[in-house]
Amino acid sequence: MVAEGLVLPLARALGVVLRERPASDQQVPVGLGPEVDVFAGDPAHRELGVEFSTGVQHRALGPVGSDRESNLLAEESLGSPPRGDDHSGCVDAPGLGFDARDPPSVGPQARDLGVGRNRRAPRLRVFFERDRESVRVDEAGLLVADRARERREVEPRVATGNAFVLKPSERTPFTARKLFELIDEAGFPDGVVQLVNGGPDTVNALLAHDDVVGASFVGSTPVAKHVYETAAAHGKRVQAQGGANNHIVVSDSANLAFAAEQTVSSAFANSGQRCLANPVAVVHDGVYDEFADRVVDEAASLTVGDGLDERTEMGPLVTADHEATVREYVETGVEEGATVLLDGRERDADLPDEGHYLAPTVFGDVDPETTVARDEIFGPVLALIRADDFGEALDVVNRSEYGNAASLFTERGAEAKRFRHEAEAGNLGVNVGTAAPMAFFHFGGRKASFFGDLHAQGDDMVRFYTDETVYIERWPEE
């Protein structure tokens, strides 16, 4: 495994700062990937008087290169570790810190994923062979990702020792191209990470290839289901994140100014083209009118224009076809009886001639069973629904076929507690416009929003990208 040798230069290229550990033994978090706790799993335990040791060994799905190189780079970048009793395998790779001073994990209380000094992130334990300078890994493997969040998908695969092929969306290929320019600049060995462009035929070929051991996908629900079924049919491990139609619930106790600001930010950022956008707000009837007025004022104030213009607050839609689809949804909303509170269909004369623009559109008094309330529109369209009480609002959330995210605005702890326990979504927020989990938590998803067992990010990510082996050793006294 070469987590250090590859991730450190990539971190520099991407502008990620890896901080040195202070003189104390306190674990220092930094912003890249899971921590890797590497230690000697060999008779060195006996030298410490260890009678019994147990733990879980995570093996990378595919080796990436020389571990000697990785150790040297880590020592050069973060400080050379003391050698002590030659337990040289005991290091923490970049991710959340670096400490070569920890003794090998010992005893039945040995640390496992999520257990240790830093409870905010998973710990990946990898065993060194004492008499070799390489990590024991399984045979070479290859993982693929389709339409994934490019940077987040590359880091964990490489940090856990795998080779990786990225197939970006054919609609948005340039981010991946820039990322791979940085990867080349960082000095990755040829073949460790590869970029393949293409459409459905390319995806199907990757999913069926004998050398591919796993696949990760982010996209619409129909395609996520196809990726999941196809990869599983060929014996691959797979995580497929699908579509979403996330909800915001606004209690009659909410701070309405704050809730309206956060709702607009969530619904219209990136023109609504993201899986964590909240395009539906379910509002208590007692505060509905005031909230709707605030939302309309907030949304109307957004500056729509070229995404490269610093004054722009909302840019264009991705393609002409997608613009046409979103406009069709707006027409459907009108036909189904929703009230147009803010109409973004008229093209502003100040907009650039090129680009596929639709300004923020807000529907009021939307029936929760209509198309604009139930479908994933993936555009700058917000539907407001009235609810008589908190229970009815929560029921609207849970009737959705999707379960990606939901947020609640309230000043009542009892409502927050009930929401936390009863809302059927994988990412929940209270007084948070966008319930986006930080990298050391897994990215939740339920119902039609996720197909698979292990989610992206956090300890699920580590388990998905590695194979686990239970390790037991005993050194009886003579």
Secondary-structure blueprint of this entry?
Elements (H helix, E strand, L loop, with lengths): L2 H12 L20 E6 L3 H4 L4 E9 L6 H12 L12 E3 L29 E6 L13 E5 L3 H10 L3 E5 L6 H13 L6 E3 L4 H9 L3 E7 L2 H13 L3 E5 L5 E4 L5 H13 L11 E5 L3 H13 L19 H16 L3 E4 L18 E4 L6 H4 L6 E7 L2 H9 L3 E2 L1 E5 L3 H10 L4 E4 L15 E2 L2 E2 L6 H8 E9 L4
Parallel strand pairs: 1-4, 5-6, 5-8, 6-7, 8-9, 10-11, 10-16, 11-14, 13-14, 16-17
Antiparallel strand pairs: 1-3, 2-20, 9-19, 12-13, 15-18
Helix pairs in contact: 1-3, 1-5, 8-9
Outline the structure in words.
- With 478 residues, this protein is α/β, with parallel strands linked by helices.
- The protein has two domains: 1-242 and 449-478, 3-Layer(aba) Sandwich (Rossmann fold), CATH 3.40.50.720; 247-430, Aldehyde Dehydrogenase, Chain A, domain 2 (3-Layer(aba) Sandwich), CATH 3.40.309.10.
- The chain has 14 helices and 20 strands.
- The strands form five sheets. Strands 12-13-14-11-10-16-17 form a seven-stranded mixed beta sheet, with helices on both faces. Strands 7-6-5-8-9-19 form a six-stranded mixed beta sheet, with helices on both faces.
- Strand 10 (247-250), helix 8 (256-268) and strand 11 form a beta-alpha-beta unit.
- Helix 1 (3-14) crosses helix 3.
Alpha-carbon Rg, integer: 25 Å
- Average pLDDT over all residues: 76
Helix content: 25-40%
Largest sheet: 7 strands, mixed
**CATH fold topology of the largest domain:** Rossmann fold
β content, as a range?
A: 15-25%
CATH architecture term of the largest domain: 3-Layer(aba) Sandwich
Total helices: the number is: 14
CATH class of the largest domain: Alpha Beta
Total number of domains: 2
